[in-house]
Amino acid sequence: MKPVGRINIGTGIIIGTIVLLGVGATGYWLGNQRTEDRGQRTEDAAPKESAKKILYYRNPMGLADTSPVPKKDSMGMDYVPVFAGGEDVSDGKSIRISIEKVQKLGVKSEVATLRKLDKTIRAAGRIEIDERRTYTVAPKFEGWVERLYVNTNGQAISKGQALFDVYSPELIGALREYALAAQGETALSNADDDAKNSMRQLATASLARLKNWGIEDQQIKELAQDKNKRGLTFYAPVSGIVLEKKAVQGMRFMPGEMLYQIADLSSVWIVADVFEQDISSVKTGTKARVKINAYPDKQFDAVITYVYPTLNAATRTVAVRLEMANPQGLLKPAMFAQVEMPVGGKAKVLTVPTSAVIDSGTRQIVLVQLAEGRFEPREVKLGNRSDDYVEVLTGVAAGEQVVVAANFLIDAESNLKAALGSLGYAHGGGATQGAAEKTKPTVVGHQAEGTLDAINADGTASIKHGPIKTLGWPDMTMDFALANPSLTSSIKIGSAISFEIVERKPGEWVITKLQAKQPDHSQHEGR
């Protein structure tokens, strides 16, 4: 019976081993099957994730050349695919950047609207005497100044105030002649008509002579009655300031010689120099505001009364005259004035904020926001300007959103493409490849290394360079323009170099920095 027991035990061990092997094989097969299933599902899912629609293929050098199918350029570089969801290039002009980057740059927009352009023309001016209120005292006969009552320049005088006394033999003779003629006319009242008419004509002629000299009737009457009076007093014709006094007591004067010049400063002129481009908006009768440096806390009101018909060729300005009351005498001739002339538009015109315009010098560009994160640069023609807005004649329609902030994040020497590149437009290629490249910063200067092969006859440098990662270029030999011919003056042909290139315009790459690489002595020192 014992041998039988041993046989049963061995048989059980064998059967158990077989069962374990079967279970292991089954598990291994099931595991492989699940792995294959997962792999199959991954392979099925991957094309779904990566199967983005290719819109077209662009030139790798950023040239305006696209292709609907894959191709290579003249240097053997593959055209770059442009995927849907990257840059929106439905018309080849618009730009798409991420909402996150829009917020980071602080991009702001405003609607182009119709409005009246209220403009303020500012001009520098000076206070001048009203020429119509200037008077000269100049006797019309010869004589001497016997006595001065007003004897200083700048003295304020009132109308009718005595200025000076004169003695004139010519005047006294004319008065005596008139007095005798008047007496003779009275004495010949009973004479014949011819005698009376002759004496009357003599008296009339003498009186007319005195009046032509500016002698008033009352003065003539007083002089004719007082035979001992030998002089005449001159009075101020107007209230004002003595601008110039030439009269000196005891001096002799000739007919027409100016002895006093008097100005009435109760009203003054302001002559402002308005720039040529603004003169069409200046109209007579328009009110203006005037500020005087001497009185910074005061503002004066004036009215435009005349626009001079000539232009100052040196300053390209036109003189404009304004009138302003000066009852307190605060305003002095030759004071400096700052004139502000508000000019309102007659009709509403289409306008955008002045900050929306990118002026390259030869043309003006406005960035129009087509949708969230999508922009289109448009060339516009501009009209009149105000302080904050400018009229748009063509290029933008009413109601469109225009970018007014962060639209000019460029270097002063960069061109328009660089300006658009600062908003996410790839400077080296023009389109983005998928979501990964959306986060890459815009690069203006690209660093590279290579060998200087030759200096060409046209002044360009032939360089064999290595890969340029920021542009996605492989190693090749290319000709580059030089920003300055002196960049290669101290570098020998065949030297290893490092350099920097920028895109001056699409497809034109210029070397801005170039220097010879220092030889590596570490290997020699190790030996």
Give me some keywords for this one.
single chain; 527 residues; alpha+beta; conserved putative lor/sdh protein from methanococcus maripaludis s2 fold; nine-stranded antiparallel beta sheet; six-stranded antiparallel beta barrel; 23% helix
Main beta sheet strand tally, sense and closure: 9 strands, antiparallel
Average pLDDT value? 77
- Helical proportion? 10-25%
Output the radius of gyration: 49 Å
* Extended strand count: 31
Proportion of residues in extended strands: 35-45%
Low-confidence stretches: 1-9, 38-50, 86-92, 409-442, 523-527
Quickly count the helices.
8
Question: How many structural domains?
Answer: 6
Summing up helix and strand content along with how strands pair, one would put the structural category as alpha+beta
Cα shape = elongated
First-residue to last-residue Cα separation = 87 Å
List the helices and strands and how they pair.
Blueprint: H1 2-50, E1 54-58, E2 66-67, E3 80-83, E4 95-96, H2 99-105, E5 108-111, E6 113-115, E7 118-129, E8 134-137, E9 143-148, E10 156-157, E11 162-167, H3 169-187, H4 193-212, H5 217-225, E12 231-235, E13 240-245, E14 252-253, E15 260-263, E16 267-275, E17 287-292, E18 295-312, E19 317-325, E20 336-344, E21 349-353, E22 357-359, E23 364-371, E24 374-385, E25 389-394, E26 401-405, H6 416-421, H7 434-438, E27 446-455, E28 461-465, E29 476-482, E30 496-505, E31 508-516, H8 522-526
Parallel strand pairs: 29-31
Antiparallel strand pairs: 1-2, 1-3, 4-24, 5-26, 6-21, 7-16, 7-20, 8-15, 9-11, 9-14, 10-13, 11-12, 13-15, 16-19, 17-18, 17-20, 18-19, 21-25, 22-23, 23-24, 23-26, 24-25, 27-28, 27-30, 28-29, 30-31
